[in-house]
Amino acid sequence: DDDFFARNAVRYRPGVALAALDADANTAALADGTRLAYDKLLLATGTSPAIPPIPGIDTVSYHVLRTLDDALGLREAIAQSRQAVVLGAGLVGMHAAENLVKAGASVTIVEMSDQLTAGYFDKVAAQLIEQAFTDNGARILTGSRVVRLEPSPVGARLTLANGQSLEADLLLVATGVKPNLEYLNGSGVAFDHGILVDDTMRTSRPNVWAAGDCAQAKHFFSPTPRVNAILPSATEQGRLAGMAMAGDAGIKPYAGGVPLNTYHFFGRHAISVGSSEAPEGSEVLTRFDEKTGRYLKAIFRDGRLAGIFGVNEFFDGGIMCQLIVRRMDLTAVKARLVADPLKVGRELMSQTWR
């Protein structure tokens, strides 16, 4: 509440966007016409939905899902929908599709990739997720691309590259996000796909930092900085930026972004931590019980964990992320870790965390 901010000497300005930044003058211009001077500045402006350049998309009504207002609007529309189409089979689109199915709508998911949840899970895990959706009545079109959108009596008509047409009374566009960077033009702060930062989240200007979904930071598995738009990375980056801005001597350089995603669907769950790619020379250990739908895959490089992925398998994603970041040699416990990642992960944490 307002008293919280007052007690902590924080001025909270809701509903006011950042319009422009002048890093030479140390000033920020807000959308309401006011200007703020700063000694140190943190940019944590997040992302917006990425809208694909499909011909006709500006002629139809569609939903996105990024903010609370988006969620409330979508919830109201879901209650009325009978024929829904979801563009994109990432986690946001899949969550929305499940709610549409449960509300009784006929749901079609259209995805350009050849599998669901690409970038999070491999094909075996994706097939398990897909089976759960088709068992509940959803229709899934992978390897499909929308080439035209136009209004129809139902709401929107979609034409696919193969000539097939779909009708939708509710269209959800869930095709990714893009960092909010418009205010940076002419600012003097360097950016690429996101705001370029060093290992303490400092930008190209010495008194400006950036963190979260708008920051393009070190990636743990790549020499090229990346935008890693997930909550764990945003939390860690924000913590480091705050320490750096406060001059905290205990700060440690950012280890790099490690993908970490958990996903619950139709009473089941899936989790992915780390790199989904198995580089040359890596060791891949898997186990799969078709009767229970339990699947686990772990990727090791030189005895060190590079990625672990499971469907209906329980393990602590945070612990697995730390095993990766700390580059722990797991050669002696690899088999045990794959057999029982929850128990062995906690053992390793209790024995080695300092």
Radius of gyration: 23 Å
Low-confidence stretches: none
Quote the average pLDDT.
95
Proportion of residues in helical segments: 10-25%
- The strands making up the biggest β-sheet line up spatially as 18-19-22-21-20
Care to count the β-strands? 22
* Strand content range: 25-35%
Q: Briefly note the structural class of the backbone.
A: alpha/beta
Task: Compute the number of helices.
Answer: 8
Q: Report the biggest beta sheet as strand number plus sense, adding barrel if it closes.
A: 5 strands, antiparallel
First and last CA, distance: 36 Å
Q: Order of SSEs, N→C?
A: HEEEEEHEHEHEEEEEEEEEEHEEEEEHHH
Shape: globular
Describe the structure.
It is a single chain. Helix content is 24%, strand content 30%. By secondary structure, it is an alpha/beta fold. The mean pLDDT is 95.
Structure keywords:
single chain; 354 residues; alpha/beta; four-stranded parallel beta sheet; 22 strands; 24% helix; FAD; flavoprotein
Briefly say what this structure is.
The chain is of the alpha/beta class and 354 residues long. It contains eight helices and 22 strands.
Layout: helices, strands, pairs:
Elements: H1 2-7, E1 18-22, E2 27-30, E3 35-37, E4 41-43, E5 47-49, H2 68-78, E6 83-87, H3 91-102, E7 106-111, H4 123-135, E8 139-142, E9 146-151, E10 156-160, E11 165-168, E12 170-173, E13 177-179, E14 195-196, E15 208-210, E16 215-219, E17 222-226, H5 231-246, E18 260-265, E19 268-274, E20 283-289, E21 294-301, E22 304-311, H6 317-325, H7 334-339, H8 341-352
Parallel strand pairs: 4-15, 6-7, 6-12, 7-8, 14-16
Antiparallel strand pairs: 1-2, 2-3, 5-13, 9-10, 10-11, 16-17, 18-19, 19-22, 20-21, 21-22
